[in-house]
Structure formats: structure tokens, C-alpha cells
Specification:
mainly alpha
């Protein structure tokens, strides 16, 4: 059996529930684990081809708009069980917005505030969505509900952080007094030593 990546194995996990099309899988990923697991539609379709070629899923006949439902095979169940049983790796965080904030002293502050405002509104909408999902989840003790709570608390933390910033009503101060030179930003490892 070929070694499968995390994206492929995640799709196998969703296929345990029922046969799904690539479109169904992409939508399900976005609406459920999309707040903490990034997967594009192109990745979904690419991995489905790999899974089918490896015998981990079986694709049904092509239907309307060339859609195919994929069903997990016994080999797929075994591969998923092997993958999900392993110690999860260290999370890798990539937040492009924080790179912009980190180097924000190189930007016009109105432009920075405008850019951050777009992200702020996105996260507020995601927080509202996650709250609605949690409110509609009958059993909060399921593994899926526990993972969804992470998505909710993540979005809440991000919105709370935004609201500490001066553009969004926060009282954060630059520490500048008239005529006072602003301290330089920490940029190299030695700047972070105690």
C-alpha cells in the first residue's frame, strides 16, 4: 500500500459516514474542519484520484455534471485507522495577516487598518457561524463537537485580539510621547532573550 498524506486520510475519515462526491467532500471540509485544517477543492479532487488508484475508495458511475460518488473500501478503512491512531504531529501555523502586522511599521497606518478591517469582519462572520453551529449541535460531548468548539474558541480569540487594536476600539498605546523616539522592533533572536 502506498503511503497516504494527511489530506487523503482526512477525506477517508469523512467517507466513513457515507459515499460523497468531490464537491460534497470539499463543502463538508469547509463547513466542519475548515477553521483549523486547510484543504482546497483542487486538493480534494487530486487526492480522490490517488485514493481511487490505490484502491482506498471506489468511484461510482458519473452522474449529472460528471459527478461521481466515492465509497471507502476496506483497505481505505484500514489505512485511515492506521493514520488516525498515530500521534498527531506538531501544528504548523501560517497567518499571513500576522506577517503584515509584524512589519506594520513599514505601512501607512490607514492602509494597515483598512487591510486588518477586512480580516476582522471575516473573523467576526466566522465566529457567528461557529456559534450558530454550536447552538444547533445537540450533543456537545461527541468528538466532532469537541473539535468544533476549538474552531469557535479560535475565532473568539482572534476577534478578541482584533478588539485590542486601536482601529477596532482597543486602547492599545504605542507608548509614544511627543518628541519620544519609538523603540525599535525586535527582529533578531537576540532581541528575545531574557
Amino acid at each position: 500500500m502506498a503511503k497516504l498524506n494527511s489530506t487523503a486520510c482526512t477525506l477517508l475519515g469523512f467517507l466513513h459516514d457515507r459515499p460523497m462526491t468531490g464537491w460534497d467532500l470539499a463543502e463538508t471540509v469547509q463547513l466542519t474542519i475548515g477553521n483549523f485544517w486547510n484543504m482546497s477543492r483542487s486538493q480534494v479532487y487530486r487526492e480522490l484520484k490517488t485514493l481511487e488508484a490505490g484502491g482506498y475508495v471506489v468511484g461510482g458511475d458519473r452522474g449529472a455534471r460528471d459527478k461521481r460518488h466515492y465509497t471507502i473500501t476496506e483497505d481505505g478503512r484500514v489505512a485511515f485507522k492506521d493514520w488516525i491512531s498515530k500521534e498527531p504531529g506538531q501544528e504548523i501555523a501560517r497567518f499571513p495577516m500576522l506577517i503584515t502586522v509584524w512589519f506594520g511599521d513599514h505601512l501607512d497606518q490607514d492602509d494597515l487598518g483598512f487591510s486588518l478591517g477586512i480580516h476582522y469582519q471575516r473573523h467576526k462572520k466566522k465566529l457567528e457561524f461557529m456559534q450558530n453551529v454550536m447552538d444547533e449541535t445537540d450533543d456537545q460531548s461527541t468528538p466532532a463537537a469537541r473539535a468544533l468548539r476549538f474552531g469557535y474558541f479560535y475565532e473568539k480569540a482572534v476577534v478578541d485580539w482584533f478588539e485590542t487594536l486601536p482601529w477596532f476600539g482597543g486602547e492599545e498605546s504605542s507608548g509614544d510621547e511627543p518628541g519620544e523616539k519609538r523603540p525599535s522592533q525586535p527582529r533578531k533572536p537576540s532581541d528575545f532573550k531574557a
